[in-house]
From TrEMBL:
Residue stretches in coiled coil: none
Organism phylogeny: Eukaryota, Metazoa, Ecdysozoa, Arthropoda, Hexapoda
Highest taxon of source: Eukaryota
Residue stretches spanning the membrane: 21-46, 58-79, 91-115, 121-147
Keyword Transferase: no
Protein name according to UniProt: Transmembrane protein
Record localization: Endomembrane system
Protein source organism: Zootermopsis nevadensis (Dampwood termite)
Pfam family, one: DUF4728
Length: 206
């Protein structure tokens, strides 16, 4: 909780699109990458990898990793489309671990290259790797910001979605009650929400 409070919360995706759109883009991009990785892994091991020791175990590991990644992206897409923040959690956890581990690997490779044989190729690979990590970190922040947006809207729903108002007719004989719905729309898009004097919350999607 303390770490999440230190992270920046973005307002929108690239080009002014909503955070929901950014989360959906992230899910489809990750799912496409996992499918491509699965196809390339199967083709490689069947065509060239049979001479490797325990190639079948390596193939099963690669397929299993792609299946896990695809499942996480599938949950992300479902959570983004249905505005269910709990389905975003697996991506946030595994995505954070992946970004941290990739950053450590790039750093170790960079230190090794500087101490031994640093050349243009090594510098190019380090730069490309760093840019990919920055891009993945940005997509992770988009999903994290969308999670925070859904959490905020959920809290507002629980606190003020229905207000019971007691009224008394002019004759003063009967007390009646009615419910005033304060929440208008769904909290599943970009936060253009505001709370006016009438206490109506509007969470529109761009």
């Amino acid at each position: 909780m303390a770490i999440s409070k230190c992270l920046p919360v973005l307002k929108h995706f690239i080009g002014g699109y909503s955070l929901k759109t950014g989360a959906i883009f992230t899910g489809w991009l990750g799912l496409g990458a996992d499918v491509l990785e699965l196809v390339l892994s199967v083709v490689y091991f069947l065509a060239y990898g049979r001479q490797l020791p325990d190639w079948e175990l390596l193939l099963v590991s690669a397929v299993g990793g792609c299946a896990v990644g695809g499942s996480v992206c599938g949950l992300l897409l479902y959570g983004a489309y249905k505005a269910k923040r709990s389905f975003l959690v697996p991506y946030l956890i595994l995505g954070a671990l992946g970004i941290i581990s990739s950053s450590l690997v790039i750093s170790i490779i960079g230190i090794y290259a500087v101490l031994h044989d640093f050349n243009t190729f090594a510098a190019s690979m380090m730069l490309i790797g760093a840019l990919i990590i920055v891009f993945l970190a940005y997509l992770w922040l988009i999903v994290f910001s969308y999670y925070q947006q859904l959490q905020k809207c959920t809290l507002l729903e629980h606190r003020g979605s229905v207000e019971t108002v007691l009224t008394m007719p002019e004759n003063g004989d009967v007390h009646t009650s009615h419910h005033k719905f304060l929440l208008r729309g769904k909290c599943d898009g970009a936060a253009t929400g505001h709370i006016p004097d009438t206490k109506q919350l509007i969470c529109d999607e761009k």
